[in-house]
Amino acid sequence: MDNFSMGDNNPMDEWFAGLPGKVNRLYTWLEENTKRFETFDLLANVCYYNHLHDPEEYTDYRGDKHFFVPEILALLCLKGDYIEESTISDSDFFSVIKEIQNNILKYSGMKDAMEFSGKLPGKNAISEIAGTLEREAKVIRNPGLPDHHLDFASKLFEPIKETIKSTYEFSLSDSIVIRNKISQFLNEKVISAKNSIFRDVKECMDEIVKFRKTKLYPVNPKFSMEDLQELSAMNYNDARKVIKNHFSIQIHHNFGEVYSFTAEELSKFTEVDIESVKSFLSTFSCEFSSLKNSDEIHETNSILKRKPIVHYKGRYILVSIPLIFWAPEIVFEHGIKQNAKLSGRYSKIKHDFVLEESLLYFKDLMPTAKILPSNLYYTIGEDRFETDAIIMYDTVLFIIEAKGHRITDKAKSGNMQRTENHIKEIVKESYQQGIRTLKYIEENDEAEFSTDHSGKFKIRKEDFDEIVIVSLTLEPVGNLAMSIKATDSLGYFKDGYFPWIISIYDLIVLRDMIENPFMFIHYIRKRKAFLSHNHVSTYEETDLLGYFLFNGLNIDNVLKDSEGNEHSHIILEPNTDAINDYYLYKFGKKEKFTKKPPCYLPVSMNDFLLQFDQSMLEHRVKVALIMLQFDNGSIKSFMDRVKITKKDFSKDRQLHDGSLYNDQLNFGMTHMTSANKNELDLKLYQYCQYKFNQLNANVWVGIGDMSTDQNKFDFTGMFFMSKKKPRLL
User: Within the chain, which residue ranges are assigned CATH 3.30.70?
Assistant: First the structure.
């Protein structure tokens, strides 16, 4: 039998083999054709095009528009001198710009394929994370919402703002104001230029109309006699359209004058002192001929990450609006590292900021929770240990460890060792600290914690049904967290607990989107369930949140479709458009009123649970989480029964009840009313136990209510029984 092999004829092998030549030819073409344009005219057109978006409805998908495209173009231009005058013909102007746009996308795509083809595919979580870091450092901008970032930056650097002022000759607040207003500044420059078209068109049309009437050639004409005669022969609307198109084209042929700006213009618009603006622009600007010919133009850590503005003869072009939001903090922290004393102080500032700010968000997420003072310590023998924060929400215990570490440029370039070191710092170390605190609680009848100023606090393990270890980070890690599975592919989580790895940039979004504390706990559970499947993934934390708001992160059907296929890998598409669209409105970036993304949970049940939380009944979280496992149809049916029960009770103040049983879950729940608490407690217990046994249910929960107001609840008692762990609460 002959042996068959695709060998050298494999089309993919041939394609990869041809990539270096194609990449070199594209680079040469780009290098030659960019020199045909006046440099700022070219940069301005490409920058403007790739920053275009519909402000009235956000979408992640922007076609061929990408923020990294003008960055690649700018890096190429910075290798040489500024081109003072365009040599390209008017007829070729737009077509060649379009070709430059397309060829940059081809170049970057082929360059990535060529580089990643030479690397082994990820075989573990670290290699997967390293690959994600490298890919996204090249093409993804805004790892968190810019408005949140500016708010964080203003608070984080507040303790060292005087050092920033003396070092860079602009203040922290100046940098915030400039970044907050620069996008609007550029938009208004473009709008002003386009509005000038209407003025120019009117003046031209007045000249044409006058010529039609008088046949006299103007003293200071805007047109040649030939053009004037041709235009006057057209009907008014056709002539106006021709003139308007002419001026529109001319604006883009000289778009460098429109889109670039001076320090004086920026100072006037932002109302920031001119000397501060000059210092800001000097700090974050590149000069022409500042790069070597050998420098890569599509890389993870280009100079534009620190200096995203290009300068020439007193005029500036902002190459990337997203990069200017993040560049100052990169520069500030690089400078801090050069000062050992300040660096040590700043490490504590970062830690304390992320911890204290996040505790405010946790309090909003769980209003009835008890949050102990931060930076607790405990002793084991003669050794003293610390834990950053402990939160007690009913019978759920949160152990929080905060990390202010940054992911370095070396890790973002794909370095495996540095990536592993960062994951150990951010995840493993915080997890081990959390486990040590948990074991201390488990090994003592009453675990005692202290602070230097707030006294002592005692915690009993038996008071808690659920433990959540939180690895809290300052660095945006929402994308990396999706590669850290509950299956423990990292080998870090040998103690049976899977930590919730969350960045402050994602926690604030959760705070804004989830208004029910039980839903918050439900989200953490559903998140863990999602990350317990190696073959299912999505892009980042907020995508998970988007799916949770939409359908409770229910992926049962997806899992069924992939059953039995060991090669299947399912990636849930990005699902953050509604969240980002809401924030555009919230932060004044769009005028159209935009609500928060709705939650799948029926409003009636949401209100029911919010009032249930206010009851402060012990073990209410466990009961609520059982109720949240019911599907929406069952929940609506149950709330219909609750409505009837409340209506009847408001009339006669007698014993009434409404129940629902789900045979797929084998779960049941009951709402019961009575004006007599003793009667209510007894009847609720008897009825729920009867239904539990009659239907052979796995779980049955019941809630007693004494409020006669049809729209309010006075929850005074509850029942919980389970086959796995029968317990009366």
Answer: 603-722
